[in-house]
## 1
Amino acid sequence: MAEEAGTRLSTAERAESARLMRVNHSGEIAAQALYRGQAFVTRDQQLRVKFHSAANEEHSHLLWCDHRVRELGHRASRLGVLWYSGSFIIGALAGLAGDRISLGFLAETEKQVTEHLERHLSLLPENDQQSHRIVRQMRDDEQTHKDAAIREGGTELPDTAKRAMQGAASIMTGISYWI
């Protein structure tokens, strides 16, 4: 187990960190699929490049989370294919609504992910500095994606859409915590 000098995690702390990082891993699967779905349907070549770039960054986050979950002696969610396929479809539907709405969808997604990662920072065991560093970097990157989507002209989504997104995310994170 790759733990930093002077920081030993108990079995319970290791299990909790692994569950939270598994949730983050699932979120990164979903995020890259959302962006690839949006890229698939946009007609704007520059926007397509930006969506692919964001998806590639999410893939880096995915690898960090996967590596950390395994370091902690656990496994990633067994439902990755479901998270990816469902998210790709959702991303494509957001993209079909038009680029401004698609960018607004990206901004709202990243806003919710940033809030989610903030919660995880408060839930991770205090002495699991490695997981904390990963989650902080992911949070900062997601904030950058959100800000870029707004600068590019993303429009604010209706509250009903935001609540639907929160509900879908809550289901995914709840299941990924255990499976």
## 2
Amino acid sequence: MREVLSIVLASSNQGKLAELRELLSDLPVQILSAREALGHTLEVVEDGETFQDNAILKARAVSKATRLTALADDSGLEVLALGGRPGVRSARFAHERATDAENNAALLRELEEVGEVERSARFRCVLALVTPWDDVARTVEGACEGQISRAPRGSGGFGYDPLFVVDGQNGRAMAELSDQEKNSVSHRACAVRALKPLLLAVLNERLDEAERVLG
């Protein structure tokens, strides 16, 4: 499939990059990392109060730096017993430069005395798409419901996937699902399904403009 549009992902997370490349593989787009587009990583201060705030901040910063269309993903885990935490601090739950294993261990410590009902949780994802020609932030959202297990399970995925038991998946954690299964039920997959009509509109705008230029 011939690529019509290059999109820079405003994230250095290789797991997110791989997932989004797969989820968007049916569209004529090329998904680049910021390092691939710029030759270096781009640090963006994520000081927004919501996933949407942070997604828009990242997408606008990367689009401005690269002068390309940018896609930002801000996502995380919301746990009932913790009042929605870790939320926007999901990647920094244990400390500012925490590894996935450290964040998982911190979450299990906080939930050690919590019963099954209050272990309900939700993965949420907000995607923001920003183009360099109008700076309009187009946002969509997806969610996946589940529960937090009492120990890590499975070897797939990243982040909190080993602890997140997905509703409707026979008691399996996200990290126990195949890539194909995960890409049909995950919060990111849901958000991408909502994104595709917006992305197709942007692609059509580019094609229409190219036709006008070429006469």
## 3
Amino acid sequence: MRPVNLLPERYRPAKSSGKRSGSAYVLLGVLGALLLVVFFFVHTSNQVTDRNQQAAAAQAEAQQAEARAGTLGAYGDFKAAKETRTQSVGSIANGRFDWERFLRELARVLPAEVSLSGAEASAAGETEDAGAAGAVAGPSATLKGCAVSHPDVATLMVRLRQMDRVTDVNLTESAKGSDGGGAGQAAAGGAGGGCGTLVTFDVKVSFDPAPPAPQVAGVAGVPASLGGGQ
């Protein structure tokens, strides 16, 4: 006989009809997709947070490095100032001229028949004429005075050329005076400024712009008669 279920329909156990068999898989797929979205969102948020922290750390390091550089900048400025001053002092030392030695030598080579009425000197040099392509000469001195005769002026120029570091001696003027007077006016010309019948001269002395080389043992230097040590 066929069994008969006497329980009411609402109390009977549910049976699958097979009509909604794919709905559970759809639900699982939706839940999986949501889970992936949540996972990627959390992962992206974590990456953004890490990048922000790294950027903040890099910015803090940059600020510290900038502050450190500002602290050390004073030392860099001091070093630059020191180098500039050293170069300036070296340039001045290399460009100086021993005028005291020049005057000592001049007093020794000046002939008795010659007197000076004026002297001008320049250690910086002068720009030569256009034919020299604007070259800068070395130190120079201009000597003015009186001499008994023109040969005395020539003797003075020869002696000037023997002085230390002298490269050239040029005669700018040598003229015979017409006023009355005698040979003794050579000494008085320096004080009064006029040479009378004596010869008035103007001589330019040029010097080597390079400083003198250090004295080497066994090498002859400037004679003592010209202010040297030998």
## 4
Amino acid sequence: MIILFCVTWREGAPPLEGGLELVEEGDLAMVVGPEPTTTNRDDALVFGRTVERIAGEVDVLPFRYGTTAADTEEARGLLREHGRGWAARLQKVEGCAELALRASPPPAPQERAASGADHLNRLVSRSRRIDAAEGEVADLLTGRCRVVRRLTGHEELRLSCLVERPAFERVRSVLEEWAGRRDDLVVSVTGPWAPYSFVADGEEAGVVL
């Protein structure tokens, strides 16, 4: 059994070490390695650092931790099966890194709401602040990102931004300046990351803004 790290272009694939191997097929290559003997947090961190190191050198489509194949022949078969789609997605993320933004109101006081109406008003107020934050951030990011996706299914604003690497620090700075003005929100801006949120189609990964 082997673990799958990422897909990249065959031409220009980086040198590998630490037991990693390159499986090649057509224009693509897949970075694979021996499956860990354990599955704990440290293994996941090592996996993540490995993907980020490779993503710092070349364009990649990262796999989620725990994605495996029986052997290199099965991995090569995956490249044959999905090669066309993966090549198209690599072109979409070319030259970019992912920036992640999370914003939410600070935790509410622990006292119980005086009534059902009070509880509903709190929820509405929280939702309005998140919606307002989304509108402000969307204005700030217009023309600065290749793609912005809101990750759905969360009670906070979570955006994944595909940013061209030369512009990355400027975009981060713009968002951090905005965060510093929003004392009603807890905001984090992180990255650069490998483009995990842009491996799948938009319908699978979130809503394109």
